[in-house]
Write a structure and sequence with these properties.
426 residues, alpha+beta, 30% helix, elongated
């Protein structure tokens, strides 16, 4: 019997949120079977079992902060290769873990399998389960809006606010004044309760990063309109061939490829400045990040070496990273090394924005939505064109307004005449 110690799961990470247990106490698990999901500042990470065995103790509840290098769960070796009684045991968790599980937890030998199954059937945090008990509700009657049907506090409060609930509560409390008092306490008036949510994981990382960027980097904002009419036509022509090869061709690969081409003429957009602002480090490859609003918070995975990829290659990476980011399962490697970022906020709405630079990068662009707008043609006639707005933010310590304007004009030229990119692709 031994404790599984939570290993290093990222540079500088000392604790992480235990999002979900994938096993229960008393369960026999296989080697490398996922045991728990933990949330770091960067991503959702699965913790596998080191060997086959029986889980005898879980040291944290879902929603707790687990300490790195502290016991996460207790595992009895059942691989058959050694005597379980002789298996080394780690020190008692009380010495290393500030929040051990209560000593009164029912042992696996006496726990009811039915009770254990029902306890893990509907995912919900201890605070939510306590709220359900206080209101004398059945957790199974509440529709969970969280991941895997997880019941959130907002789901419980919404269930209490459903039409007919007030009448039911009142009917059940007419027997005595004391019961009526309990009924009123269980049904708080709308707007009387403050919901508190801790800022953890990627939300906390984003908060720290954005504060540091906004307070230390002087942002220069530059906005422009880009006519993407011809680009949309070209994409429609190429889509069948892309789909035949198994790729979904969006506009993002064109934005990225043209940006990598423009950076060849304006390398300062793909650089970093040292801490005391005495050196500019020009980066050898263009790793373009894309901001993705996933379930776990804002993530910015990046595509490595865009200058050397084809449009189909970029499209495949965009699809892979988008899916990974939305599920919160982006690898650390995909999150490291970004050199410039694109925020496709226009997919949700809006025209112009003032994006915040993703330090230590020196530039970011926010894409606004594409609109059909009237424009004057070559002969003065009014024509319908597809216009997309873009908003750049540059680090004004090393990028002046003229540089970012000329860079944007170069990038815009490739997008408005996409066939011109063929002359510059290797």
């Amino acid at each position: 019997m031994s404790d599984f110690i939570l290993p290093d799961i990222g540079e500088g990470i000392v604790e992480c949120e235990l999002v979900k247990w994938l096993v229960s106490e008393g369960e026999v698990i296989e080697e490398d079977q996922p045991v728990a999901e933990v949330m770091t500042d960067k991503a959702l990470v699965e913790i596998p079992a080191p060997y086959k065995g029986r889980v005898t103790r879980l040291y944290y509840k879902e929603g707790d902060l687990a300490k790195v290098h502290a016991p996460l769960f207790e595992l009895v070796d059942e691989s058959g290769g050694s005597d379980q009684e002789d298996a080394p045991s780690a020190p008692e968790p009380a010495a290393t873990n500030p929040e051990p599980a209560p000593a009164s937890v029912t042992s696996p030998a006496t726990a009811s399998p039915v009770a254990a199954a029902s306890r893990h059937r509907i995912p919900a945090s201890p605070a939510v389960r306590r709220l359900v008990r206080e209101h004398e509700l059945n957790l199974g009657d509440i529709a969970g809006s969280g991941r895997d049907g997880r019941v959130l506090k907002a789901d419980v409060l919404g269930h209490l606010d459903q039409p007919g609930r007030s009448a039911q509560v009142q009917d059940s409390t007419d027997d005595s004044p004391a019961a009526g008092t309990r009924g009123r306490s269980r049904q708080p008036e709308r707007g009387q309760e403050v919901r508190v949510e801790p800022i953890r994981g990627m939300k906390a990382a984003m908060a720290r990063s954005m504060v540091a960027s906004a307070t230390t980097i002087p942002h220069f904002i530059y906005s422009e309109d880009i006519d993407v009419t011809d680009l949309l036509k070209l994409r429609e022509q190429l889509k069948p061939e892309a789909e035949a090869s198994g790729s979904r061709l969006t506009l993002m690969p064109f934005f990225m490829k043209s940006m990598a081409l423009a950076i060849q003429d304006f390398p300062v957009l793909n650089s970093q400045v040292n801490e005391d602002v005495t050196e500019i480090h020009y980066l050898p490859q263009c790793n373009i990040g894309m901001a993705v609003d996933g379930k776990a918070g804002l993530m910015v995975p990046n595509i490595k070496g865009v200058e050397n990829l084809t449009l189909l290659g970029i499209a495949g990476e965009v699809a892979r990273l988008t899916e990974a980011a939305r599920s919160g399962r982006v690898s650390q490697e995909d999150l490291k090394g970004g050199t410039i970022t694109i925020s496709n906020i226009g997919a949700l709405g809006g025209t112009y924005a003032s994006p915040i630079i993703n330090a230590p990068e020196v530039a970011i662009v926010a894409l606004g939505r594409t609109q059909k707008l009237p424009r004057f043609g070559a002969n003065g006639e009014v024509v319908e064109r597809a216009i997309m707005t873009v908003s750049w933010a540059g680090d004004h310590r090393i990028i002046d307004g003229g540089t970012i304007a000329r860079f944007c004009n170069c990038w815009k030229g490739y997008l408005e005449s996409p066939q011109s990119m063929l002359l510059h692709m290797g």
